[in-house]
Amino acid sequence: MNLGKKVIYQIYPKSFYDSNGDGVGDIRGIIEKIPYIAKLNIDYIWFNPFFVSPQYDNGYDIADYYKIDPKFGTMDDFEELAAKLKEHNIGIMLDMVFNHCSTEHEWFKKALAGDPKYKAYFYLRDPKEDCSLPTNWQSKFGGPAWEKFGDTGKYYLHLYAKQQADLDWHNPDVRQEAANVVNFWREHGVSGFRFDVLNVIGKDKVLVDSTDPNQEKMLYTDTPVVHQYIKELNENSFGQDADSITVGEMSSTTIENSIRYSNPAEHELSMIFSFHHLKVDYDHGEKWSMVPFDFKKLKEIMFEWQTGMDQGNGWQALFWNNHDQPWALNRFGDPVKYRNKSAEMLATTIHLMRGTPYIYMGEELGMVDPSYQSMDQYVDVEAINAYNELIKTHSKEEAFKIVHSKARDNSRTPMHWDGSEYAGFSQVKPWLLPTDQEQINVEKEFASGEIFNYYQKLIKLRKSEDLISDGHFEPLFADDHQVFAYLRKLNGETLVVINNFYGDPCEVSVPSELQKSGNVLISNYARELSELPAKLKLQPYESLAFKL
Ligand code: NOJ
Question: N or C, which terminus of the chain has less Cβ within 10 Å?
Answer without folding.
Answer: N
